[in-house]
User: Fold this.
Amino acid sequence: MVNKTFINNNTTEKFIFLIIQDVNLNYMINIKQISFFFIILFLLSCQTINQKTDEIAQKENKKLSKFIGKSIEDLKIHLGEPDLIAKNEINNVLLTYKSKKYGISCERIFEINNKNNVISFSSKGCF
Assistant:
């Protein structure tokens, strides 16, 4: 009888050990699954942010491209007086408009040729 009790206790210990191993394995699998889920979520959110900034930049470019070929007077009627007027190396006038939205600086620069028409623009930080 002593041997049977020993065998039963040993079997019980093995059974408990297997249950603990199974619980630990399931725990590790759950951590891996949760980690994988958060990595995928993070990557998708980055992609969404990139898509939103691209959309905003496209809207800004579409809005500002309407001024290409227009006169300097038309530009000033719509945007007001520029914050800075300068000339570039080929003697074209550069009109710079600066603003801030939500603490983010926006700078729009328009290049004006010698016929007083807008020939190009650049935009940084604007939305």
In short: The radius of gyration is 33 Å.
